[in-house]
Automatic annotation (TrEMBL):
The keyword Nucleus applies. Coiled coil: none annotated. One of its GO terms (cellular component) is cytoplasm. It is found in: Cytoplasm; Nucleus. Belongs to the translin family. It holds the Pfam family Translin. Keywords: Cytoplasm, Magnesium, Metal-binding, Nucleus. Mg(2+) binds at residues 68, 113. This is Translin. GO terms for molecular function: metal ion binding; sequence-specific DNA binding. InterPro entries: Translin_C, Translin_fam, Translin_N, Translin_sf. It comes from the Eukaryota.
Amino acid sequence: MESKRLIFTLHRVAGASDEERLAVLTEVSQRLDKLIASKLLPISSELTGQDPWEYRRAYSPGLQELIEAMTFLEFLSTGRLLSLSGGVRDRLPSGLLVSQFDYLLGVCDLSGELMRLALNAAAKADFDTPERVLAFLQKLLGCCETVPDRGPDWFPKDFAGKLETMRQSVEKVETVCYQQCLRCIEESNIQLPVVTH
């Protein structure tokens, strides 16, 4: 639940001044540290000496939401994707199993937040953010589509649905960018060349 609140807070950066943007990113980073210390550290210590795969399903959905919030924060801060080994695992308690599946599903959820960010930015006449988000989402989708599906026993059943949702998010941002280009052409009265065969 707190992860979703962090994500909603991060959406305040759309149209914010640089000072306000920095304040939001700092606030969310601090709240994220508190969330990890208050919720995940106790889980990690309770799992010490246990088989980490045995209890993973109990906390996996919450972990995916947290990964979504962490990767959204990283995108807004640096424009890049937070990696699993050098980013997510480094910030979370070491006794907590963070599988590639949890990371992948959390990253798939990130696409919806990036789509909202692009739509909100476009509504505020910010033309750069949707284009930046689109380039990032297209690369991300391309990477996710190359993940091999090795059958239902090996792969999370949620992945196919989340991948389709990611495709829809990319299409929505593509549409927004296309509409922005058309609006710019209409407003500048540029005459497009007529192609004849």
